Amino acid sequence: MTLKSYVHPPATKLQLDYAEIPILDFGLLDLPRGKEKLVVQLKEAVEQTGFFYVVNFGLSQADIDRQFAIGKEVLDLPEHEKLQYRANLEDGDYNGYRPLGMIEQYPGLRDNWECYHVFKFIQEHRRTHPGIISEHYSEIEQFHRHIHQHVAHRVLRLLATVLEIPEEFFVDNHQYEESCSSFLRYVKYHARTPEVNEKYKDIFVRGHTDFGSVTFVFSQPIGGLQLQTRDGSWKDVRHIPGSIVVNTADMLHFWTNTYLQSCVHRVVAPPADQGHMDRYGLIYFLRPSNKSYLQSVDSPLLRRLGITGENESEDLKAKRKVTVGDWVPIQTKKNWTPHDQQPQSGAEFQSLFR
Questions:
Q1: Which residue has the higher pLDDT, 208 or 72?
Q2: Which of 140, 277, 281 is nearest to 216 (CA)?
Q3: Predicted TM-score (pTM) above 0.90
Q4: CB distance 226 to 264 below 8 Å
């Protein structure tokens, strides 16, 4: 089957209140003192919101758009066909299709997004896939491995340098061939009418923090992604063609005794001039090896700052004795909690580590 070209819609013409987010150019790694510049930029980012862009990461826009095209074709399949590949969500397994409307956002109101997950290309995650995935399996694997080994690992090495710990510390805990639940997500947010959006208070995905180590969102033109600043206000995330929007997440936040930020963020209805469009996304969620423990990292920087785990609660100390592999199903099962049983603070909605 010939893959249809993916054409991105035009960016919004409306003036939005954009967040100031640094841009890390991986091309600097090949230049004298380039790494030092990136470390300074990254240190500022992770101390503020944990959000930053990366560019020049070894994938062309054509490479990225091929994945958008695959995602669109699989998510535009008839519902009865997609349901043949439904993930075992209730048992905490995301490998496969996640149907539309799985989360109750407000009483009686279900969400407007669906997604298809492709886990790492190792034996334990093998499963049947729709034809469009199977036909492009080797291409998806190449893309998958590149993000993990040549984008995520670079970020992890830079983070280790910020913390003044051995450069391979986080990389050693995120090896591709090791058992873990890192995955690529193809996602589709279905457009809503203004009247329906009003019922949902314009929310597509409520404020939350990400559960894993680092999240990589491939930038696309339809607005809606917002982050929450320290004063509680919401800022839009600007689209930069050819970039990845990256944010550090809960596991690194916990691993570093809260130093690396795991910022609350959300997805809202797009600007008015894009509101009629379905919003397709491409995201890679990085998680540590299942055998890893999130023991406090021994960082000279954190010791100087007085950020240690010495005075943390007994509950948090106990959580450090649980493997990542045991945490994952606990977390993912929480996502199906009925609305009236969910904590109503966005910061509490996802994180097990606060």
A1: 72
A2: 281
A3: yes
A4: no
